Amino acid sequence: MKTLAKTFAATALIAVSTFAMAADKPTGDNSKKAVMTLSTADLAIDHYVAVMTEGQSAGVEQLFTSDFKQKVQASTDKTNSRSEVISFLKKQKGEQLNCKTSTTIVEQSSDYRIEKVTQQFEGFTKTDLVTLVNNGGNWKVSQSINSYK
User: Fold this and answer.
1) Which one, of 34, 33, 55, 67, lies nearest residue 140 by Cα?
2) Cα Rg for the chain, rounded, in angstroms?
3) Distance between CA atoms of residues 55 and 142, nearest Å
4) pLDDT tens for residues 13-72?
């Protein structure tokens, strides 16, 4: 009977240790690739605003569709690819912008939404028209058009 009790105690100890190790976060480069739940357009636009204004780079790869384009309308128009935008955003490393941000839904349906994101800085305003699409149950940004006043 004592042997049986020791066996159960050892098995329980091993199981608890295994579960505790499995619950720990990985410590390599993979820990930086956070998985974001973007199951609604609201979550996606909130994450977009956080990435653009607060320098958050966790989950940034999931935020954009594979064919994402960013168009910047200024004195000279410029188009940035998905990889260029992601690379730029990852370099921000948590730098927060000093601006007042607001969002307004321009148009929406069950599978897409166009949202106006306004960032009021001291001396100028950046307006960003963001197109979000429902991509297999996850909302992603497919296009962004920026203009400055």
Assistant:
1) 67
2) 22
3) 20
4) 333 333 333 333 333 333 345 556 678 899 899 988 988 888 777 888 889 999 999 999
